[in-house]
Amino acid sequence: MIKDITFGQYYDSKSFIHKMDPRSKILLLILVTVFLFIAGNFYSQGLAAAFIIFVLIVTKVPIKMYLKNLKVILPIVIFTSLINMFYSGGGNEIFKFWIFTLTTEGIYKAIFMSLRIMLLILASAVLTYTTTPNDLTDAIESLLSPLKFVGLKNAVHTLAMMMTIALRFIPTLIEETEKIMNAQKARGADLESGNLLQRIKALVPILIPLLISSVMRAFQLAEAMECRCYNGGVGRVRMRKLRFSVRDFVALIISIFFSLSVILLNLL
After folding, report:
1. Which of 262, 266, 258, 11 is nearest to 130 (CA)?
2. What does 187-246 look like in DSSP terms, one character per residue?
3. Which of 23, 87, 162, 227 is most buried when burial is the number of CB atoms within 10 A of its CB?
4. 3-state secondary structure of 12
5. Sign of torsion over alpha carbons 160, 10, 23, 70
6. pTM for the whole thing?
């Protein structure tokens, strides 16, 4: 399961999406997310699914990497499906047992919400797979730059840096967790058997070393930044200037057409 977590990793490619301005990708992700929540029936959500699948193909990132992200969130999807299945009112009742009532509306909501969650994860993965951490930092800082007019210029840079460092260290923490788990198994630790409470207790020998390792890495990163005279965003310049290109406007037009189509399909 640990090996299946690929969120936060960058996949190098020369696709149309990779070459887009990172600010455009963030804005389009927000737009797609909004209209995934606006989609109110299977017609509009089906269009959203087709659009996102098309984007996945364009990125030239192996589909198995996207599927690994879905595998990780499978417990969340199942839990959400069960909640919606048995606690959604309306529709024809199929059967009732104790406090659980299964209806046709519940089945509809379970499928609908599960699909929405999976599409949100896939759309978010596109951004991280096609954008480097440095580009994400520059894009976030650029998009939040209007806040400098209210005296938050340094705070904007700090926030962008924090978000990027968090994304950057997701793969590192996953690798560290796997090493600790293998080390504990080599010492005879049983991490996979027993009831739920026993398996939770078995995680303690993993979480404590992971926490210590994370704190040590944070101190090392802070010292490295201090040694390089890092003092925030004051006086810093970018090696590469962000510029919108024709491909960004093409992607924007396609996304607007998609958004209008979702609104129209909601009327069906």
Report:
1. 11
2. TT---S-S-HHHHHHHTHHHHHHHHHHHHHHHHHHHHHHHHTT--SSTT---SS-----H
3. 23
4. coil
5. negative
6. 0.75
